[in-house]
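Quick question, first post here. What does this chain look like in 3D?
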Amino acid sequence: MRKPREGVLVAALVAVPAAAIMLISTVMASQTPTLDEKLTAELGQTQAWVRVWDSAGNPVVQAPTVPEHVQSAVEGDGALEGTDEYTAAEVEALLPDGARTIDLLGASTFLHTPDASARATLTAGEAWDESLAGIYTLVDGSVPAADDEIMISPTLASVAGVAVGDAVELADTGEYTVVGILSPRVDGSGTVFTTSGAPVAVGALGEWGINGSMTWYLVDTPLSWSDVQELNRQGLVAYSREVVTGPPVTGGLTPIEQETDAALLGAGAVGLFAAMLLAGAAFAVTFRRQRHTMAMLGANGAHGSSLVAVGVARGLWLGLAGGVVGGVFGIALGLGWDYVLLHWGGAEGQYSTWGYHVNWSHLPLTAAYGALVGIVSAWVPALAASRLDVLGVLRGSTRPPRARRWTAVLGALAVIAGGAAMAWSARLLDQSLDLAGGAAYAQRSQASMILVAGAVLAFGGLALLVPVMLRLLGRAAVNAPLAGRIAVRDASRSIGRTAPVVAAIAVTIAISTGLILTLDRGRANLLDYWTPHAPVGDAIVELGFAIEGTADQADIVVAAAHDVLPDAEVTVFDAFLNFNGVEPGAVDMSAVPFLLAPEQNVCPELIDPEFSVSARERAADPRCDSREIDFGPWTSRIVVGDADDLAALAGTDPGDAALDALAGGGVVVFSSSFLDEGTVTVGFYDVDGGEFPDFGSLPDESLTLPGAFQQVAPGTMRVGLAMVSPETAAEIGWPSQPTSVLIDADEPITEQQQAQLSAAARMPDGSTPWVYVGGGPRDTYAAVVSAAIMGVALLLVFSSVSIALGLARADARQDDFTLASLGASPQLARSVAAWQGALIVGLAGAIGAPVGTAWVVVQGFSTLDRDYVLPWWWIVAASLALTGVVALAAWVFTKVPKAVHYRLAA
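> Answer (accepted):
Ran it through. Tokens below.
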């Protein structure tokens, strides 16, 4: 209490990791629903819901509290086959007698306005009933009073530009009036709510039936576990409030248990290590400043154990205070992050976050954690203080600390051993690529354990070498400015204070570097292997399967594209008629052409599923490329076009070989697996007779044509896997027609433009072709997580540096006043602090960043995809920027001493 500033400093050291733990705890708790929230989200105010799982009525077994966890109760001949699917009336007859139900049908539809069309989810039934409050929330307007009145969700209102009172069309079922806005918990792409008797709902029920799309909510009738099991015997599953609140001990499947998240434990372990290092440094400074008091106690008969007890007691109370304060601050930070997710996190943030939850039971644990940190951190400095030379301290003389060379030797050996272990791990990971099955998995597991041990050894060794590094920097700083020389020498003289802080910051930098680089590598791999259905930012419109009229459909889509996007390039692709969409008997299917890949060009795993090869053998075999396998060894998706169409597909000028093949009556293939010494085989199969291409199933008739390979732009695979000229198509003899329209826009097509294209492309019969816009891979998760990691890392770094500089300034307080009294510039203290901050962060970065980077590099040996290049410039720039920012902050916030205070400080 006599020197509260020192106590606050120590408590703050403990508070930082305690806050991080409660921050993670609060966010995790907010992303886990309470029982009441789960029940409300699933049931609203009702007692249960029932759905069809097996439409043929075969019995099933479900988990009591997780009805999605279900499996069939019969196998083989015991299953009912060939029976009619359930009707709504038949399901309702199986429900408890007299039960009031709210029936909701789920389907899909199109919403049309004069300016936009948007695909939406259709929910038919009284979703606005008060019994379903919690599942759906009324935002604006009123509920439908007639079958031609609807409600829509906020997302759909935004995309389509619709407000309450507007008239819209749904599919081809007529005009409806929007009377309200109803919001589901997660809106997705938008929802339309109608009555059960609305024409669009009747049409959807007739088209899709109830299997898997109808939910019956029991408003007032509870379901016991025996009731649920009886429904299971009829092929139905149920989620019951009574069962969830009192689940049975036995019976049904075991509920799916959420895996324990290791994030909290990991944060606690790392926080414990960092806090002990930082708090240990603070206690070392505190006990050094109180050595005279400790010596007086020793001179008056206090034993060493008593002096240790005094120090440990101080650590206990300061750690406890830091744990409580940090825990409360962490809760506030966690609730703030929940607010960000709920209001600006989009659909994903709203889906993952249930509300503002605090796990209050973790707060006393965090306080105990703080107390433990305080006790452990104070133990070693207190033990050292208890062994001080009492007479020497009282005389005012102290022995200089002895240099210990064993720490440097041990550190060097640890670095060598750690580096060797990491190199060994890399070798084992690389060798595992030559193994298959369980042997490969076992070797990767062994390599991972060795990697962890190597990283810990290397980091620990570098931490032990900090005194050596400081001494070398001291020698190298001979020509540095005065402030720099003072900073380096002070750090070298106060190893007990400097080294733990450097180690604490280094471990933060190491973990952050490893995590961020791992996420960045994953994002790079995702971009490399991403094959969208349409080029990113462009659109592909798939036309219908009708045998006639697709040319008119193509004209409508082209006109719509030019109307909405005047500067876009629009290409119509003709392709062979897709026999899967043709009604039986409409076309003679006795000779359907398929492009066939020679068996020697096909990955052996496709021919023999039991064929086991190593990852390296598979990667070395171009036949086993994942994208080649996705194409399949045969296809009927053949485009009919000219050189301009080929250029549009390729996204660039086609090669001469491809142009020659197209003009010479050959086939241009977009997968080299179809080529056999410059030729391509087209096989004809009697689909009407049940013949389809398969390994060993050779066609009775085939045609060999010259072929050439052409690389195409990603995303155009939907259009086809090969191209022939109109003349070659006539020779093959299978009908072709317009099937797809590619819209190549100058700028990425927005959701609003997509809706406008859909509206403008409506067909005379009221149908709307689906306008698919290539959005590219979703990598927002990696970006958000990386930002969060950097934020936490910066918080820990700045907190640690602030505390370290506070300790240094407290140690050098008398020296600052002495220098100021002797005429030193008032800014010298600031300059020294800036140099000290830069020194601590720079040295910590030199330790942590290489360890984290080495971890990522070694992990890269577990895969053959080694094209990832580390962002060296970003790593270097981030390190320099962090060092510079810390130095600037230290200069700004350091208090300038005044010479007149010298006597007061003495």
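Residues 103-218 form one domain.
The radius of gyration is 36 Å.
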